[in-house]
Amino acid sequence: MMTNYLSSLSFYEIIFLIIGFTGQGLFASRFIIQWIYSERIGRSAIPIAFWYLSIFGGLGLLTYAIFRKDPVIIVGQTFGVFIYVRNLILIYRGGNE
Predict the structure, then answer these.
(1) Residue 23 domain-assigned?
(2) Residues 66-79: pLDDT tens digits?
């Protein structure tokens, strides 16, 4: 069934599907990174890598959402990416903790 679905997709649809899955993978992996980091230091904390994974994952999902013309995901990821970038700006300015 999945092979039927994949074989029905155009080259560009497959490319954007890959972009979407990659974005989702990056976005989901940020929680694993945060968990490992917190376990290592013995308290709950968010490493800088979390924000980079959020940005790149969010951009991948945003790209996929634009291709699919999905306004719900477009709006959510657009706002999210701005927030993730702003957090990095605050961190690099010395405003973290």
Answers:
(1) yes
(2) 999 999 999 999 99
